[in-house]
Design a protein that fits this description.
By secondary structure, the protein is α+β, with helices and mostly antiparallel strands. It is built from ten helices and eight strands.
């Protein structure tokens, strides 16, 4: 499904750019109706592909196409056409799917469902206290300019709500933070402190429990930088298994770096695309 996500991301960016151009030059839509028609087609393609992606997720949730078809009140043949893109559901069917799975129409048609979303639907429980394994490996970029491009390795250990975050160098612990984690409906925050190195803060999209618990994914890390102890914001990758940093260097660097086409932005957010891409990468290794 990672290829599908890449295609969806490309279409999404294309639509956003086209909409931005038309909004910045409203007269263009009156002067060239073909541009509007092309944009409408691209929007429909985005919606259609997103729905097909989400439909496949729901089939995985229900285990078989037959079960999903029965649950949403359509024939298997029609569901197959939805899945292949040959047909698109009526508004009644779309609204019914939203009601059954407790999601909005916007989410169903414009936002690819994540593994966490599917797990949440399966368990119907967003307040479970024990969603993590006891130990995860963590990876994030080195902030020291002299070592730019290198990747730190750390260990994050859980004991109920207590959390320990160790940063390693050549197998030895060089920084040690401890604290706790607090969950809201959508996020989990880690508030960590060290007597010698100050405070660290981690925030992630809330994962959901399944048979194997949390596999891994991306979070935002706020940490004093190695070079001058000034606050630094970066991505951090959680992984249930230890990764060979040399073997997967390119993959890790792509996952951990920030990408932006704009020179100036009001804020930088960890996107669903990035977290899902990280999850798919880790899933292949386990």
């Amino acid at each position: 499904m990672s290829r599908d996500l890449c295609e969806l991301k490309e279409i999404d960016e294309k639509v956003k750019n086209e909409l931005r151009n038309i909004k910045s030059n409203p007269k263009a839509s009156f002067e060239d109706n073909n541009k509007v028609k092309a944009l409408k087609n691209n929007i429909y393609e985005k919606v259609s592909k997103t729905f097909v992606y989400n439909l496949r997720r729901l089939i995985m949730l229900e285990a078989t196409q037959k079960k999903l078809a029965k649950k949403i009140g359509v024939s298997e043949d029609l569901l197959s056409k939805y899945k292949s893109g040959e047909a698109f559901p009526s508004i009644e069917t779309l609204l019914y799917i939203c009601e059954v799975y407790n999601i909005s129409l916007e989410e169903l048609l414009s936002t690819p469902l994540t593994a966490g979303d599917i797990e949440s639907m399966a368990t119907n429980n967003i307040s479970e206290p024990n969603i993590f394994e006891d130990k995860y490996y963590a990876y994030f970029l080195v902030t020291n300019i002299a070592k730019e491009g290198a990747i730190h390795e750390g260990i994050i250990e859980f004991n109920n709500d207590a959390v320990v975050f160790k940063i390693l160098a050549r197998g030895s612990v060089v920084k040690y933070f401890k604290g706790n984690c607090n969950a809201s409906e959508k996020l989990i925050d880690f508030n960590l402190n060290s007597q010698s190195d100050g405070a660290a803060y981690i925030s992630m999209i809330k994962p959901n429990i399944n048979k194997n618990k949390y596999l891994g994914g991306l979070a935002i890390l706020v940490l004093p930088s190695d070079a001058n102890s000034k606050p630094c914001v970066q991505k951090i990758l959680f992984s249930r298994v230890r990764l060979d940093r040399e073997m997967y260097y390119d993959n890790l660097k792509d996952l951990l770096k920030f990408n932006t086409e704009e020179l100036s932005r009001g804020s930088i957010k960890l996107s669903q695309w990035e977290d899902e891409t990280a999850y798919n990468f880790l899933q292949k290794l386990i």
